[in-house]
Amino acid sequence: MITFAVIGSTALFLTYGWLLSAIVASYLSGRKGYGDKIGLASGLLLTFIGVVIWLVVPAKSDSRWKLQGIFGKGDKTLAQARAEQHEVDDRA
């Protein structure tokens, strides 16, 4: 009986890790401008490797990652940040 309890708790923690990696990969891919679904798929299929891949993939130039930062710091909305970015690009 003790063996089943140990296996059960390990399986539960591995499941939590698997789901957490899917959430993080989905968040990263969405912030970098590639969409949430592709990040969710890579996080579910590749587990922790999917998170590492999305940390390495470069962000698109008009993405939230580039305009607002990693966690969305600042008081500007995404539309305001994009408008400012286009003004800077038009001046150059």
Instruction: Compute the average pLDDT.
Output: 86
Major sheet summary line: none
Order of helices and strands: HHHHH
Q: Runs with pLDDT <50, length 5+?
A: none
Shape: elongated
Count of separate structural domains? 2
What helical percentage do the residues reach? over 70%
Number of distinct helices: 5
Return Rg in Å: 18 Å
Roughly what fraction of the amino acids lie in strands?
under 5%
Number of strands: 0
User: What is the CA-CA span between the terminal residues?
Assistant: 71 Å
Helix/strand/pairing category? mainly alpha
Task: Describe the structure using short key phrases.
mainly alpha, elongated
Topology, element by element:
Blueprint: H1 2-31, H2 36-46, H3 48-56, H4 64-68, H5 78-91
Helix pairs in contact: 1-2, 1-3, 2-3
Question: What do you see in this structure?
Answer:
This protein is mainly α and 92 residues long. The chain folds into 2 domains: 1-58; 59-92. It is 75% helix and 0% strand. It is built from 5 helices and no strands. Helix 1 packs antiparallel against helix 2 (36-46) and helix 2 (36-46) crosses helix 3. It is elongated. The model has no long low-confidence stretch (mean pLDDT 86).
How do you describe this structure in short?
By secondary structure, this protein is mainly α.
